[in-house]
Design brief:
This protein has one domain (4-117): Trna Endonuclease, Chain: A, domain 1 (3-Layer(aba) Sandwich), CATH 3.40.1350.10. It is 30% helix and 42% strand. It starts with a helix and ends in a 5-residue tail after the last strand. It is of the alpha+beta class.
Length: 122
């Protein structure tokens, strides 16, 4: 059984997918998993692979959803994305976006942050 937070997350991901498709992205994967890591949406547009983290909240009272993509979460996403690129032998440019969805007065407000973070160069 899904709790309210899981239902909110699922709805947020559906809204994000519809938004991306309208913007011309091709959805390649949803909820792609590597070990315990998960990437919400993997899509492509103009020869760029985009790894999308969706954050959905019922309000922004505790802060905008995108601020909850912590450095630790970013490292997990980068690790999973690297594995996806290796497994699929993809050598295209890639980018990490965050899509924040907040419900206000029974309407969803969406904010796509392109290039929200970048892998650190070692």
């Amino acid at each position: 059984m899904n709790n309210n937070s899981q239902i909110l997350g699922i709805e947020g991901e559906k809204i994000a997918q519809k938004h991306l498709i309208k913007q011309g992205y091709k959805i390649l994967e949803t909820n792609w998993r590597f070990k315990k890591l998960e990437i919400d949406i993997i899509c492509c547009k103009e020869l760029v692979i985009v790894f999308v983290e969706v954050k959905a909240r019922s309000s922004s009272i505790f802060g905008e959803p995108e601020v909850f993509v912590t450095p630790k979460k970013q490292r997990f996403l980068i690790s999973a994305a690297n594995q996806y690129l290796l497994e699929n032998n993809i050598e295209l440019e890639s980018r990490f976006d965050v899509i924040a969805v907040v419900w206000h007065n029974n309407k969803s407000l969406l904010n796509q942050i392109e290039g929200a973070f970048y892998p650190a160069v070692l």
